[in-house]
Design brief:
This protein has about 190 residues and is of the alpha/beta class. The protein has helices at about 5-15, 35-45, 55-65, 125-130, 145-150; strands spanning about 45-50, 70-75, 100, 105, 110-115, 130-135, 140, 160-165, 170, 175-180, 185-190. It has one domain (about 30-170): Rossmann fold (3-Layer(aba) Sandwich), CATH 3.40.50. The protein contains 5 helices and 11 strands, in the order H-H-E-H-E-E-E-E-H-E-E-H-E-E-E-E. It has a 5-stranded parallel sheet. The chain has a 4-stranded mixed sheet with strand order 7-4-5-8. The protein is globular. About 25% of the residues are buried. This is LUD domain-containing protein.
Length: about 190
């Protein structure tokens, strides 16, 4: 018997009995999801705009951005001037000032938004734009990440990401820098029921 066989035999002989998995934890649902979501989002450096219609988003974009700035909108109700579907090289998105995207669901405990690949077209878009606006609907708000992972099917689309605020980093001296590696701002437009 080789030393390898002896070691593997000893491990097999001393293997503990299998124990059942614990029951999944259950958490109670929050009743004030919008307030909790805003707290989580602002804690991450983002801003929340609660609106009744997406016409308010369109007005916000027209008021805060000019026609000479590159705006990539994947939200039907808001016109952009960059057709993302016609761009084959993601590097061509490097000068996008504003990306406007639809989010799948929002998580109140931390302000995160689930973004599957089909909502961004190019994986780089939500990270390369200078500013990011994401639209979510009130009925998609969830209490916590446990509920989010129950809803997210990671096999769909091949790629997805939770986004929670603009880009940020802090060095050893605890100096927080917003927009260091990605968007300088994130504004979430939450459409009421």
């Amino acid at each position: 018997m080789t030393s390898k066989e002896a070691i593997l035999g000893a491990i097999k002989k001393n293997k503990p009995a299998a124990s059942p998995l614990p029951d999944l934890l259950k958490f109670s649902d929050e009743t004030n999801l919008i307030e909790r979501y805003e707290k989580g989002l602002t804690g991450n450096g983002g801003k929340l705009q609660v609106v009744d219609t997406l016409e308010e988003l369109d007005a916000f974009v027209k008021e805060n951005y000019t026609n000479d700035q590159l705006i990539a909108s994947l939200v039907d109700e808001v016109n952009g001037n960059v057709d993302v579907s016609k761009i084959s090289n993601p590097h061509d998105l490097e000068h996008v000032e504003l990306a406007i995207l639809n989010g799948e669901l929002g998580v109140s405990e931390n302000g995160a938004i689930w973004m599957p690949e089909n909502n961004v077209v190019h994986r780089v878009l939500p990270f390369i734009a200078q500013h990011l606006i994401i639209v979510i609907r009130e009925e998609t708000l969830l209490t916590n990440m446990h509920q989010a992972y129950e809803k997210v099917n990671v096999a769909d689309g091949g790629y997805g990401v939770f986004i929670a605020g603009p880009s940020k980093t802090a060095d050893i001296e605890q100096s927080l820098v917003i927009g260091a590696h990605g968007p300088r701002s994130l504004t979430v437009f939450l459409v009421k029921k």
